[in-house]
Amino acid sequence: ILVYAQELIPGKVGLVSGLFFGFAFGMGGIGSALLGRLADSTSIEYVFHICSFLPLIGLLTGLLPNIETRRK
């Protein structure tokens, strides 16, 4: 996803990388706090069950448009 974003904005590789990683670390911090609260209110097994489905979100990257065909 990072390379895809860098190809969309050529010449701004540092900006795109900084925004991407800043957003990723920020969302990771917020997500861990929310999952911690959920584990406190339910159980850790429930949170593990929820987290086991999170890698499925990565399948959505297959739906990104192909920029090689758009440039031609």
Structural features, described:
By secondary structure, this protein is mostly helical. The protein is 68% helix and 0% strand. The protein has one domain (2-71). The protein contains four helices and no strands. It is elongated and about 45 Å long. It starts with a helix and ends with a helix. The model has no long low-confidence stretch (mean pLDDT 88).
| N to C succession of SSEs | HHHH
Helix coverage percent? 55-70%
The total tally of domains equals 1
Using the CA coordinates, give the radius of gyration: 17 Å
Counting DSSP E segments of at least 2 residues, the number of strands comes to: 0
Question: What attributes does this structure have?
Answer:
single chain, 72 residues, mainly alpha
Secondary-structure blueprint:
Blueprint: H1 2-8, H2 13-41, H3 44-51, H4 67-71
Helix pairs in contact: 1-2, 2-3
Outline of the structure:
The chain is 68% helix and 0% strand.
